[in-house]
Design goal:
Order of helices and strands: HHHHH
Number of strands: 0
Largest sheet: none
Helix content: 55-70%
Number of domains: 1
Radius of gyration: 12 Å
Number of helices: 5
Structural class: mainly alpha
Distance between the termini: 34 Å
Oligomer: single chain
């Protein structure tokens, strides 16, 4: 189970990265898109990059793959910058 594989901080980073990556999708994306993005974030974490920035980069990269221009919005701010607003 994923919860047993990572500590609480990493799980929080993964959740924040998923939410941030899906913000750029229309209505937060459909289930398949969210699943693809979550899979890429999970792969990143399993490869050892559990930083918020690394996980967010992986999520954003997955969000760009397989989405049409009408489904995405360009988001340039990092999750930490977005929280500061």
């Amino acid at each position: 189970m994923i919860v047993d594989s990572f500590n609480e901080r990493t799980l929080a980073h993964m959740e924040a990265a998923l939410d941030f990556a899906c913000r750029g999708l229309v209505r937060g994306g459909d289930h398949a898109a969210r699943r693809r993005i979550a899979g890429r974030i999970l792969q990143c974490a399993r490869n050892g990059d559990v930083t918020l920035e690394g996980l967010t980069r992986a999520g954003l990269a997955a969000a760009r793959v397989g989405t049409s221009a009408s489904e995405t919005q360009v988001t340039l701010a990092s999750p930490s910058a977005a929280k500061a607003r």
